[in-house]
Amino acid sequence: MKKIVNIAVPTSALVAVVFSVAAFNNTNAATSPEQVPSPVVSSAPAGQPVDLTYAAEKSLPSVVYIKNTQNSKIQTVEYSDPFEDFFSDPFGGFFGRGQGNGGRRQRQVQTPKRQAAGSGVIISADGFIVTNNHVVDGADELTVTLNDNKEYSARIIGADATTDLALIKIDAKQLPAIIIANSDDVKVGEWVLAVGNPLGLNNTVTAGIVSAKARSMNTGGITSMIQTDAAINQGNSGGALVNTRGELIGINAMLASPNGSNIGYGFAIPTSIMNKVVDDLKKFGTVQRAMIGIKGSDVNAYVDNEKEKGKEVDLGTMEGIYIAEVVEDGAAAEAGLKEGDVITHIDGQKIKSFGELQNVIAQKRPGDKININYLRNKKQQKATLTLRNEQGNTKVVKNADIDVLGGQFRAITDQQKEQLNIGYGLEVLKVNGGKLKDAGVPKGFIIQRINEQSVKSIDDLQKIVKEASTSKEPVLYIQGIYPTGKKGYFAVPLSEE
Fold it and tell me: Residues with catalytic annotation?
């Protein structure tokens, strides 16, 4: 069972999916012109060696090295000391002499400075660069090194964990932007190059073919990947997968390996999805994710599963998407689709698997209409669906900032920790208006948990607010404590309605 678009279909592979970013250690998009010079390979006779020098020369200048630096920080951590708690108060606070907190203590530790490396692709001459979300995640500093060794500081324009894509920007002009091809036109067996900075080796190209398209990976995110046997290793993350004309067809993202090194299976995010994500990040700051509103599986997987139960199933086809559940109030429900229906085409395009469905839906936004062909009791049916967002409507989803709360905050002092016998929290210093005032959260209240996540810093608060604002239920469920020691609970809606 699976929800369309957001979650990858589980696979039976016995290898681990590994992000190809180098491990941490302590210490306006160009498009294909109408005429592109043809490389030598295009006219090579069948069976002859393939010359990929043209593709390498065209793409190498557009691929950059990205260094992610996370500075040293002071963090409060909890540790357990049951003996200390017992000897200081063997009755666990029974007579009011202690809090009986099970030996939980807090102490401050300093984390080391950490660095990781990955790759990126220049998509516009004025400094926009696409990379993976996991390459830039958590960065305090981002340094971009071009192919000619010039260095720039970069800022994050937007990032999306689900598609594992990020858009960053450097202040530079006349950069060698790559030409972007349509990944839908890529064919299995086509020669490709993976370009990046693997294992600390800058400006590296590896060759292979497209092994599969619309490949589903068990990553909890995007399920429509280009699979290639071009070697992809740690540090290749965010680099370019290019065709024989040196045009971008995908962003290298991960490899499948039991040991973290390449064994012949690499995966890239197709440009058909990348283009839409980049456009959304520029326009809205977050990805506008469309939902079809069904759960189900590939038809062949469903039929095989039923056979294992001793049941014979005839759906009239062995290709398509079997609908096991229609989400209430979703796009499919509104259009009249039902459990047991089989989706075969979207907008005239044949759909054989979830990966292909993902590729189509990932290019849409809430409010877009799609035409679906489906089978019901082996009879052809048609429907038009209006896609919705995760919140069940067609509005633009905005990535909220803590400013919407209308408050001022600070981490609690050591004195407050001692007085209230708590280890962390954010004190509400002032309520100016906004969502906190609407929900009745008062000045002086100490926020400790929101949506079951600990809140120890303003960065924690910011992250939780952003996650909640784009979720299916845009509400902050706040738990905390008043200055008197009394516990308090608030629900703070983030939506405008």
Answer: 134, 164, 237
